[in-house]
Amino acid sequence: MGDLTQRLRDNPPVKRFRIGEVVRFSGLSRQTVHNYTIMGLICEDERTEGGHRLYSESVFYTLARIERLRATCTLREIRSILDRERMERNSLVLDSPRKSFSGQSGQQTGLLQDGHQAV
Fold first, then answer.
1. In total, how many domains does the chain have?
2. Is residue 3 included in any domain, yes or no?
3. Which of 30, 63, 94, 107 gives a 20 to 30 Å CA spacing to 119?
4. pTM (two decimals)
């Protein structure tokens, strides 16, 4: 029993949503969700063995963001905005080990980029 509890704590199951669930919870049409996927506005997380698209919970935040941006932007502009935001998030994740050990991001810790100590 304790092993299961530990495994669940260390690696909790992740909920994935089929397109029908995304449609039901978002209020958008199936065609709109499909079009947003094809256009690259939202991304499927994975596919089932049967080929069904599965979306993570984050798709609902992205859909809400798209809805807000639709008031002032074209879908092409929204795609550019979302792509830029994804790139920024990815670069933050990739850059995080380079941050200062003192917790002050952006400052050097005396190590060169290759990991050697500066003299």
1. 1
2. no
3. 94
4. 0.68
